[in-house]
Specification:
Elements: E1 40-44, H1 48-59, E2 64-68, H2 72-82, E3 88-90, E4 99-102, E5 107-108, E6 114-115, H3 117-129, E7 135-138, H4 146-159, E8 173-176, E9 192-195, H5 198-208, E10 217-218, H6 222-253, H7 257-264, H8 288-298, H9 304-325, E11 334-337, H10 352-362, E12 367-370, E13 396-399, H11 410-416, E14 419-422
Parallel strand pairs: 1-2, 1-4, 2-3, 4-7, 7-8, 9-10, 11-12, 11-13, 13-14
Antiparallel strand pairs: 5-6, 8-9
Helix pairs in contact: 3-4, 6-8, 6-9, 9-10
């Protein structure tokens, strides 16, 4: 990791203990004559998490919400969205606010190490515009200790950069409030919240109580909240790797993995079923285990089991491409059905199907894809457009993502395909 790791595993002196239940009632917003709905709110980072936050704030009735992103494409997409959201505007210029949401994506470097550059840049942007009494809620996924040891110092550096302005160390409040949502599930889980001090926690709780969301689960420290977020997504990565391994065992026995998984899933205790597939994708599941392993290694606790699961998940697309390549005729195009990272969404971030496409291309196959959710792959630098599911285009089919809309096309495939392989189970 490019950042200094010293102290990451420590718990700083402002680590809070849980406050009395009524403490939040004694900590008021700085302008008592204003309604909470009239507070000015800035959302920094307009990817999936940021745009979802704009929607939720608008739905909750807040009337002064601004979104900001340094990426012009993200700005443009959010600008189109904002026309449908009362109280929301997308701005190209940062202005002061009462409450700040940091929703900036955290990524991995080319060496698969946590890269906090964009988070620290956002921290500096926020710090330069902070005012006494402001609340900053960090929603970005980070490593254990990163909020206290890197993000808050970056905010401070910008906040205290004006030497002629008298500012105190307790001028503003910081809470950690990691994102917890799924683009395909309607269930809403309570989010986790922590503060860098008792006062910050109370301030965060007071504001969050006015959102139209489940009451957040309070934890004692920033570090506990950071680790909980990493644990829940790493849990999924670990179990997906196991499900894929189990599916391969079933395949070797000539047994349906779907039947085995379905039977095991009837157990009502001590078991949670995970589906096998062609790999993990999306914004967080491929990334968060690397943040967790990096954090663990910084305090001398390697995680060999999780490391092995990450290795298996990364290898899965190559394994799928190699396994089925021999079944296809090189003189005819292979049509990949589904290119997103999961069914029934348009998100292609870290999609294993795209990696499989690249593997087959490198192996000399003529490859195309069909996905009604993704008209083209131009934004990835690939000159591909989704083809229509005609008789000619279903001669050789490799199903990678089982979108529900494909149910209407399966009869055509079954009637006209020479090779039809379902790689999802």
């Amino acid at each position: 990791m490019s950042l200094e790791k010293a102290g990451r595993g420590g718990i700083g002196k402002c680590s809070p203990i849980l406050p009395p239940a009524n403490l939040a009632d004694n900590v008021r917003m700085k302008k008592k004559n204003r309604s909470f709905k009239d507070l000015t709110i800035n959302v920094i980072g307009l990817g999936y998490g940021g745009t979802e936050r704009l929607k939720k704030l608008s739905a909750a009735g807040f009337t002064h919400v601004r979104g900001f992103d340094t990426d012009p494409d993200a700005q443009d997409k959010a600008f189109l969205l904002s026309s449908e959201l009362p109280g929301v505007v997308v701005s190209k210029k940062i202005q002061p606010a009462d409450v700040w949401f940091m929703c900036v994506q955290t990524l991995l470097s080319d060496q698969d190490e946590p890269d906090l550059r964009w988070v620290l840049r956002a921290s500096s942007i926020i710090g330069a515009e902070l005012r006494r009494g402001d609340l900053v809620l960090i929603c970005s996924t980070v490593g254990c200790g990163d909020t206290r040891n890197h993000i808050i110092p970056a905010i401070n550096d910008a906040y205290y950069s004006e030497p002629d302005v008298v500012k105190k160390s307790d001028d503003y409040f910081v809470g950690y409030y990691p994102e917890r949502s799924s683009p395909t599930l309607n269930e809403i889980s309570p989010r986790i919240v922590a503060g860098c001090s008792l006062e910050s926690l109370a301030k965060a709780k007071e504001f969050l109580d006015h959102l139209d969301e489940p009451e957040p689960h309070v934890v004692n420290t920033l570090e506990a909240a950071e680790l909980a977020k990493l644990y829940e997504n790493s849990y999924r990565a670990l179990n997906v790797a196991f499900a894929n391994e189990m599916a391969d065992v079933c395949r070797s026995f000539g047994i349906s993995a779907a039947e085995v998984f379905g039977a095991a899933g009837t157990k009502s205790f001590g078991f949670h079923s995970f589906d096998s597939g062609v790999g993990v994708g999306g914004y967080r599941v491929p990334v968060d285990p690397c943040f967790l392993m990096d954090s663990a290694e910084s305090v001398g606790e390697p995680m060999p089991l999780l490391s092995r699961a990450v290795e298996m998940n990364n290898r899965r697309p190559r394994q799928i491409a190699a396994r089925y390549a021999s079944h296809f005729d090189r003189d005819k195009p292979i049509t990949l059905f589904g290119i997103t990272y999961k069914p029934d969404v348009s998100d292609i971030r870290n999609a294993p199907a795209i990696k499989i496409l690249d593997e087959l291309l490198d192996d000399g196959f003529d490859v195309q894809y069909h996905d009604p959710y993704v008209p083209n792959l131009f934004e990835t630098g690939r000159d591909f457009e989704s083809v229509e599911p005609t008789k000619e285009n279903v001669a050789q089919v490799l199903l990678l993502v089982p979108h529900e809309v494909f149910e209407m096309v399966y009869p055509l495939i079954l009637e006209h395909s020479i090779v039809f392989i379902d790689a999802t189970s």
